[in-house]
Every structure is written in structure tokens, then in C-alpha cells.
Amino acid sequence: MQDSKPHYELLDGLRGVAALLVIFYHIGEGFAASPIDQCVNHGYLAVDFFYILSGFVIGYAYDDRWQKSLTVGSFFKRRLIRLHPMVIMGALLGAVSFCIQGCREWDGTEVPFRLVLLALALNLFLIPAVPGTAMDVRGNNEMYSLNGPSWSLFFEYIGNILYALFIRKLSTRWLSVLTCAAGTGLAAFAIGNFSGFGHLGVGWSLAGNNFAGGLLRLMFSFSAGLLLSRIFRPARIRGAFWICSIAIAILLALPHFGGEESPWLNGLYESICTILIFPAIVYLGAGGKTTDGTTSRICRFLGEISYPVYIVHYPVMYLFYAWLWSGSEKIPFSQAWPVAAGAVAVSILLAWLCLKLYDLPVRKWLAARLLPKK
Length: 374
Prior knowledge:
With 374 residues, the protein is mainly α. Helix content is 66%, strand content 0%.
């Protein structure tokens, strides 16, 4: 098992704050007419924040262990034990949600159950679906039709593989070069509007430039987090958790910049957030300490549910969207807000139940059988 090290409690809490903002972003999607008038407009940038946190935590937890007892195989086992049980749960819940909706694409086309099972099998093993094929059962060109957010885990796995095989061997100097190069590529992608959407919310599909954009998002953010873990020196700031939480909420909730006429402005804003501000927030959060029991409990709870709530909330969103768009006209927010609030509450409760009744016991069982004893 892992050596005992100080725990970054504030980073756990910040991960949970970002995960909740993702839920609010997806709730807002149900009422938005376009990406420009979206609530929590930049909510997809939470994924970039997650990747920075992931790089930081992995570097902190594993960088100094490769010369001791850690092997590539044991590293992969640890990461699979940590991540994949909830990937499986998210896929299963997504399949149940799709069946409740009647196994239909968004346009009403009925999907044979055998194709639902095929899509489920792909999602269980994180194999992306090719756009426009039978495995794309919702017809939205998503990598994972049954649980859309699984796309970010696909890239997370790529990051883990690259770290174990290549990136961990880089000196801090060359890691800095890689981070700068990836950041330059990401900024060019965003400001040049290579997504075609005027924003960085890419990676969820194999269509267009999605894969390239998703890979750039991962490569910069994961490398930046790893670099931070190597150069980190604590800088104590009182109230760091609340300062960082408010900063994340504001950054993700600001309106779209530039409109359809000047998409580069939005790309510039999102580049600044991802490349400059998010790493600063992680650095600040890593240096902070909770000074009261209430903040500690909040951070602990948010940290515990952060990954489960991210990976299981979208099956709830599928049902919410189906209800919201069930009539000839979309139900307005003034009438739908109680159901929207209920969807948020159900997502959090479902995540907590999955964590306590499934994820923690399964991880404990797998670790006991697959990892070497101390």
C-alpha cells in the first residue's frame, strides 16, 4: 500500500466544488439555446482543473516511489482499482437510464436492445464509439452514449499510461518544456477556434477536432499538475479553501466572451483560466490548511463524493432532459426549477450511496487481492 504522507485536504474539497459546478453546468444545458447563453458557461473547464489536480496528486504520491517498490504493473493496478469501479457503475446506471427512456435516440428512433448491450460493453471497457455507427445509441456522436462524462476518464487513462511509461522519467527541466509546449498548443487551439464551437469544451467525441483538443487539454493540465508537485513550496494563506472555491465558481460562471463574431476572445479567456489561473489555484490550495472543524468536514465530504458525483450524475441528467423536453415545447426554468433542484440532490445522494455501498468496498476487496502486502 502507499506510504503515509500528509494529505492535501483542501484539494479534495476543491475537487468536490468543481464536480458540483459540473452538475450545475449540465442542468443549465437543458435550458440554454446555445453555448453563448449557458448557465455556468465555462463549466466544462472543470475537467481541465481535474487533470491538473490529477497530475499534482499522482506526482506527489508516486514520483519518489519508482526507485523503491513501485513497478509499472503495480501502478496500473492501483490506478485501475481507484478509477474503474466507478466507470463500471456509471456505465450500468447509464444503461438503466437509457432503458427507462425507452431505448430511443434523441430524435425518437428506437434502438434494438442488442445495440444497447454493445454500447454498454464498450463503456465498461472505456472503448470509444465511432461517430455515426450503431454503437452511438443516442445519436449524438459521443464517445460513450450511455454515460457521456466517461470521455474524460478515457483521457485520464492516457495520461496515466504516458506518466508511467514516459513522463515520469523526464527531468523537471524537460517536464517544463513539455508543459510549455502543450500550453502553447492548447492556447492556439482555443484562440484559433479549432473546436468550431468558440470554446474548449472538446474531447467528448471522435468527430472533428475533438480528439486533438481533448489530448491537448490532458497533456497541458496533467503535465502542469505534475510539474507543480515537483516545484511546490507551501505558501500558507488563511481561508485558502474559501478563496479558491469562490474563484473557481466565478471563473466557470462568467458569461461567454466575444459572442459568435469574436470566438477568439472566449478562447483567450479559457486559455488564461486553464494555463495560468487553475495552476495558481491548485498551488494555493495545496499550501492551505483548514483551521476549523466545519471546513475540514466540508472538504472531506466534497472530496469523498467528487469522483462518484462526476461519474454518476449524467444518467440522472439524461432523465431530467427527457422530462424537460418531453412536450412540444421545453419547460421553462420558472416551472422546472424544483425538478432541477431535485436532480442535483438525487445526483449527490446517488453518488454518496455508490461510494459507501459499492466503490469503497470493491476497492478494498480488489486492493486486498491485487496489491502486494506491506
